[in-house]
From TrEMBL, chain A:
Lineage: Bacteria, Bacillati, Bacillota, Bacilli, Bacillales
InterPro entries: CPA3_Na-H_Antiporter_A, MrpA/MnhA1/PhaAB, MrpA_C/MbhD, MrpA_C/MbhE, ND/Mrp_TM, Proton_antipo_N
Domain NADH-Ubiquinone oxidoreductase (complex I) chain 5 N-terminal: 63-110
Transmembrane feature ranges: 30-51, 72-100, 106-125, 130-152, 164-184, 205-222, 270-289, 309-330, 361-387, 416-437, 458-477, 512-529, 574-594, 606-627, 632-652, 658-680, 692-711, 752-770
Membrane association type: Multi-pass membrane protein
Residue span, NADH:quinone oxidoreductase/Mrp antiporter transmembrane domain: 126-405
Domain annotation MrpA C-terminal/MbhD: ranges: 617-681
Coiled coil region boundaries: none
Protein name per its UniProtKB record: Na+/H+ antiporter subunit A
From TrEMBL, chain B:
Keywords: Cell membrane, Membrane, Transmembrane, Transmembrane helix
Protein name, per record: Na(+)/H(+) antiporter subunit C
Keyword Membrane: yes
One Pfam family from the record: Oxidored_q2
InterPro entries named in the record: CPA3_antiporter_subunitC, NUOK/Mnh_C1-like
Coiled-coil regions listed: none
């Protein structure tokens, strides 16, 4: 059944790709919308099964010889993500119908979106690590395509490339981790790995696996220092930002950490790396958000910091923290999704997303503004029972106070965690206020806007309204989603199924005081933002991860161009030398390493003088060609070698070869003579003696290598020649006494056919070159 | 004998490679001719030399020299003849079009 769920979006992508252009009167989005809606309903019907603590699974063989199965299973964690993917997916598709005009390349857009949807479902449902990896890279590719959707904009292609490079780098690291995992645990199934986790925990590879896996998770979830691709990804159309870059794809890293958390959590390294990076990301992301002037830029940094917060909670590893993390994944998807959609509406209705040109929009678009206030207040964690963001944030504070790590560096870090959590949350409060108050209150600057602002069409408002309804509803009645959705998801992270009652009021306790500190300091900072904003300009550019990314890319490009230019000089002689040196060196090293050189004098033909004499003359003649300055002399000397060879053929009982060689040699000499009149005289080499020495060394070593190979292979014959077959069957099967001829025209007839073809081609080439010589240069 | 011939093949090869690295087109063509001679001798030596009668069936003779290398070489002789003549004409045409037969003046243009 699950196969069908994952396959459906891909199938829809195919159908849309083939057929949608024919019915252009209706917006393509309407054909796409049923896919996520149907999937959402189908997934919802499975909820009761999960609430009982069971799982749904389906398996099909894909590459059994490599132990790669398409095995999918749906547990609480997968269910939460599947519902987010299909639920937010439905709302985003609905929203995009009104956001994107029919003039855009809608077919491309929806095909990419559906591919993403299917592969994201694949990521969260796969049990086989390599299937998971395949889908994981598919999400990177579809994200790349969607960011670059407006490919004619330079910034889009830059952002697309950046996200691709960063996430694929992480993906490859993750592949390394998965390979190590499957070697260590001797299985490719995640569930079996978790069941046999002691093998992994005790192995020497534990730390490398952990680091490589986290590299994959951190790059995908835009954690420090890999966060800088996410703000650049905001060049994508807003529905994509709301869907991939806030609600789903960037949470794939979170999913990965949560999924493997049963194996890793409990180790101090996991706690320090995941929570440490998470807290740094939380603080840096929220601090930098108030610096942005683009609405989506603020939201991008906000997403970074919120992901950092979820990551931190997963790093904590306690049951309460896991619940808080799961709860916040849900809450973040609701309020951030709606805020992105509102940002898109503002962009759509005013023509700009620059917060410096916006302001006072409350009067013009009251519904959007109200929704935005709800979303932002929930994000800021205002302590009112109608904001779900407050509930999960307070659970975050609470869990940061109840860490189990007490000893060593981990213990020290655990003491600092609550303080960092509060600092990060203060800046979260600041940018949330900056976002909504800057956009919707104050004096309207209508002169700076491209259009006169007005409220968005109802179709665009439906999706954010639904999300905000969830914000309020979950804020009021958090236990509504607790038992069916949150508890099973937490069970997949911690391993035990337990229902914790969620409540707004816990009495006057430390988390509440922390929240109050956040609100008070946050309000002060938010209202004095203009005064302290210049601090941002004091930060040197060298500290930004953008700077490092750019230096790395520039360095790489420069290195490859310098390196390539160093040997691609256009000189064919240099290329020949490189090839020969490489051939000689690699073969010699191979012979040396494998001890391949052998010489045996056992099985040799007797040395007779006529052959040796002829051979000596040939050798002298061959060497003499090097110094020939007379063309006629060069031809004669070459002829000596050729005729000498045919003499050798006679001695070595190869009559056919001797005849052929004689004929060919004669024709060749004639050809050389023919070309004489047209070719310039041979000149003495004007090379420097050092160049000559290099040539000599290359030539001598190539020759020596050939001799060594010849002697070694003659001295180590492991089996008899296959010639006996031809000798025995030449007459019966081929009907001829001359074995060589029978081989050529019968046993290996096809070889000869192609040989004739080669000769024919050479003749054609020669004919063309001579025939068209008077018709000017071919280049003209 | 095989060892002597191996050395001869290596010598032909070395001379061929040296010519291949020269600047003048005609020398390069001569080099390829030497290379193919060396290769033929190499293949023939691989099949052991002088181990019987010429490979033409005759009554009463049981042992023949290995016919397989000979068949391979026969193919190769013809092909290398084709290649040599092609290269010669190519050299001639190159000289006609470019008025030079020196390799270092025959590099491609920058915008290639």
């Amino acid at each position: 059944m699950l196969h069908f769920y994952i396959f459906l979006p891909f199938l829809a992508a195919l159908l849309i790709g083939i057929s949608a252009k024919r019915v252009s009167r209706i917006h393509t989005g309407w054909f796409v919308l049923p896919v996520p809606v149907v999937l959402f309903i189908l997934f919802s019907t499975k909820m009761p099964i999960l609430a009982e603590g069971k799982i749904v699974q389906s398996v099909a063989n894909w590459i059994p010889s490599l132990d790669i199965q398409l095995s999918f299973y749906l547990d609480g964690l997968s269910m939460l993500f599947s519902l987010l993917i299909t639920g937010i997916g439905s709302l985003v598709v609905l929203y995009s119908i009104f956001y994107l005009s029919k003039k855009e390349q809608l077919v491309h857009f929806y095909v990419y979106l559906l591919i993403f949807m299917g592969s994201m479902l694949g990521v969260v449902l796969s049990d086989n690590v390599f299937v998971l990896y395949t889908f994981w890279e598919f999400t990177s590719i579809s994200s790349f395509l969607l960011i670059g959707f407006w490919f004619y904009r330079e910034k889009s292609t830059y952002g697309a490339q950046k996200s691709m490079l960063v996430t694929v780098f992480g993906g490859l690291s993750m592949l390394g981790a998965l390979i190590l995992l499957s070697i260590t645990a001797e299985t490719n199934s995640i569930r079996t790995m978790i069941a046999n986790r002691s093998e992994i925990i005790e192995s020497n590879l534990f730390i490398p696996i952990l680091i490589l896996l986290l590299l994959g998770a951190f790059t995908k979830s835009a954690q420090f220092p890999f966060h800088s691709w996410l703000p650049d990804a905001m060049e994508a159309p807003t529905p994509v930002s709301a869907y991939l870059h806030s609600a789903t794809m960037v949470k794939a890293g979170i999913y990965l950490v949560a999924r493997f958390s049963l194996i890793f959590s409990g180790s101090d390294e996991f706690f320090i790396i995941v929570s440490g990076i998470g807290l740094i990301t939380l603080c840096i992301g929220s601090f930098l958000a108030s610096r942005q002037t683009d609405l989506k830029g603020i939201l991008a940094y906000s997403t970074i910091s919120q992901l950092g917060m979820i990551m931190t909670m997963l790093g904590f590893g306690t049951g309460a923290a896991a619940l808080a993390a799961i709860f916040h994944i849900f809450n973040h998807a609701t309020f951030k999704g709606s805020l992105f959609m509102i940002a898109g509406i503002v962009d759509h209705e005013t023509g700009t997303r620059d917060i410096r040109r916006l302001g006072g929009l409350y009067t013009f678009m009251p519904i959007s503004a109200t929704l935005a206030f709800f979303g932002a207040f929930s994000m800021a964690g205002i302590p009112l029972p109608i904001f779900n963001g407050f509930l999960s944030k307070e659970m975050f504070f609470d869990s940061s106070l109840k860490l189990e790590q007490t000893s060593g560096f981990a213990g020290l870090f655990a003491e600092w965690a609550p303080i960092l959590a509060v600092i990060g949350s203060i800046f979260t409060f600041v940018y949330s206020m900056y976002l909504v108050f800057g956009t919707f209150t104050g004096k309207a600057k209508l002169g700076q806007l491209e259009k006169k602002p007005h409220e968005a069409p109802i179709g665009m408002l439906i999706s954010p309204i639904i999300l905000i309804v969830f914000v309020v509803l979950v804020g009021l009645l958090p236990n509504l989603i607790n038992e069916p959705l949150l508890a099973p998801a937490v069970a997949s992270i911690t391993g035990d199924f337990a229902i914790t009652h969620l409540a707004f009021w816990h009495g006057f306790n430390t988390p509440l005081y922390m929240s109050l500190i956040v609100v008070v300091i946050g309000t002060i900072l938010a209202f004095t933002l203009k005064k302290w904003q210049p601090i941002y300009n004091a930060i040197p550019g060298k500290f930004s991860s953008d700077y490092w990314y750019q230096s790395l890319i520039n360095g790489l490009l420069k290195f490859s161009s310098v390196f390539t230019k160093s040997y691609m000089t256009g000189s064919l002689r240099l290329y020949t030398s490189i090839i020969l040196v490489f051939l000689t060196a690699s073969t010699s090293i191979f012979i040396y390493v494998t001890d391949g050189f052998k010489i045996s004098f056992d099985d040799l033909a007797p040395v007779t003088w006529p052959e040796v004499l002829v051979g000596f003359v040939m050798a002298v003649a061959a060497i003499a060609t090097i110094w020939m300055t007379q063309r006629i002399a060069a031809i004669i000397v070459i002829g000596v070698v050729g005729y000498g060879l045919s003499l050798l053929f006679v001695f070595f009982r190869a009559p056919d070869l001797a005849l052929t060689q004689l004929i060919v040699e004669t024709i060749t000499v004639a050809l050389f003579l023919l070309c004489f009149t047209h070719l310039p005289k041979l000149k003495k080499s004007d090379k420097k003696s050092s160049e000559k020495l290099v040539d000599f060394v290359i030539a001598a070593s190539t020759g020596a290598l050939l001799t060594i190979v010849a002697i070694s292979s003659h001295s180590s014959k492991y089996f008899d020649s296959i010639a006996k077959y031809f000798v025995d069957n030449s007459y019966e099967l081929g009907g001829g006494d001359n074995i060589v001829n029978v081989i050529l025209v019968d046993f290996r007839g096809l070889d000869t056919l192609f040989e004739i073809a080669v000769l024919g081609l050479a003749a054609l080439g020669i004919f063309a070159m001579i025939k068209y010589r008077d018709k000017g240069d071919m280049n003209h | 004998m095989e060892i002597v011939m191996s050395i001869l093949a290596g010598t032909l090869f070395a001379a061929g490679v040296y010519l291949l690295l020269q600047k003048q087109l005609l020398k390069i063509v001569l080099g390829t001719a030497l290379l193919s001679h060396g290769a033929h001798l190499f293949i023939l030596t691989m099949g052991k030399l002088n181990r019987g009668a010429p490979p033409i069936l005759e009554k009463g003779i049981k042992i023949y020299t290995d016919p397989l290398p000979q068949a391979l070489i026969l193919t190769s002789i013809v092909i290398s003849f084709g290649v040599t003549s092609f290269l010669l004409v190519l050299a001639y045409r190159t000289y006609q079009s470019n008025k030079t037969d020196m390799m270092d003046q025959l590099r491609g243009t920058d915008d290639e």
